Amino acid sequence: MPASETLHVFQSTVQPAELSAWQSLLSARQATSELLWLGTTPVIVTSEMAAINVPRNLPRPVASVVCDGNVRLSRRELRPEGTIVTIGPAKIGDGGVAVFAGPCAVESGPQLEAVARAVAEHGVAGLRGGAFKPRTSPYAFQGLRWTGLELLEETRRVTGLPILTEVVDPRHVEGVAEVADALQIGTRNMQNFELLREVGAAGRPVVLKRGFGCTVEETLAAAEYILAAGNDQVILCERGIRTFERATRFTLDISAVALLKQRSHLPVMVDPSHSTGLPKLVEPVALAAVAAGADALLIDVHTQPGEALCDGAQALRVSQFREVMGSLEMLSLGLGRNVSVVMNVDVRDAPVAQSA
Ligand code: PEP
Ligand code: MN
Questions:
Q1: Segments making up each domain of the chain, as ranges
Q2: Regarding the domain with residue range 85-355, which homologous superfamily does it belong to in the CATH classification?
């Protein structure tokens, strides 16, 4: 455990010379100091614990927070109002409920477009879909890779929905970031630290899925890799952890949702599809997640789940998705929140819910 340190948070308007003067002041007191950035907010990390007599000509920090060093920039105290993450036209963390829905994997142009139009019709913030799939077995469908990415790009062009897609390899980050509106780090890669550094530098929003064998603390420490690279556009995603329970695919840790919201200023997403693995549990778990404070949901939807090349058993049919969205609207109304919808989305030819 690193020694305690203090984070001094300054206003974004503070000048570079003033930050240097602060660092000189700390070094004159034999204290270590390091300048970090939370987006455009400067944060000086120092070993100096005592209250400092700030000279008149130096700006005072807006907050000074003592921490243990593993988790710095994601701490709630640094940005009590919370971070808003912008994905295309969608805002996540603004008090609304943002739903990202789509197939587990991009399988073909027609499949992707049909699902995209169907979910758009029911009001979503973005389209999910994996081009690069991290599969347990090397013999399972591995995704259409770069071709899948081209199909995502084309589907965004025809529907207007922003794209969230997974990146699995540091060498792919630049290419995937050229197309995707947001990058997803899958559960199996949450502690792939080179990948986290790369996505931190890629200039795209990131959805960081909790490792299914990782603690809340480890999840926050993983987010630090992205934040420390200068990217404050990070969404934490609870997608279930491994427990002794076998009735569901994983165990959704609902307390982690509330805990992450309390400990971090980053928006929190919940994946009721990968966590439960059961279409019938998606609605109640999605509602519980929103009631616990989740800002966003990630839901697997397929027009023909029985034909899906990946995770079809957990995907909602379009008619089921429509029902989930209806219930979410009702709950959100009661909570004084809105379900965020990307406007001007072209839903022509969307498959009608009843026939899907
Ligand atoms: C996914 O969302 O497609 C996925 C693979 O999820 P996870 O990494 O949570 O298993
Ligand atoms: Mn999946």
A1: 5-69, 85-355
A2: Aldolase class I (3.20.20.70)
pTM of the model as a whole:
0.95
Mean predicted confidence (pLDDT) in 153-162: 97
Give the CATH class of 5-69: alpha beta
Q: Are 313 and 276 in contact (CB under 8 A)?
A: no
* pLDDT tens, position by position, 6-38: 999 999 999 999 999 999 999 999 999 999 999
Ligand 1 pocket mutation pick from 274, 299, 302 by most atoms within 8 angstroms of CB: 274
Out of 132, 185, 187, give the residue to mutate to test ligand 1, the one with the largest number of ligand atoms within 8 Å of its CB.
187
Locate 71 and state its tokens: 């988790």
pLDDT tens-place string over residues 102-115: 999 999 999 999 99
* Helices 109-121 and 318-335: angle between axes, nearest 10 degrees: 30
Closest CA to ligand 1's atom 6 = 186
Mean pLDDT of the chain: 94
**Which residue bears the tokens 């963390």?**
93
Nearest CA to 132 out of 197, 57, 186 is that of 186
CB of 314 sitting under 6 A from ligand 1: no
* Cα radius of gyration (the chain): 21
For the stretch 274-332, pLDDT in tens is: 999 999 999 999 999 999 999 999 999 999 999 999 999 999 999 999 999 999 999 99
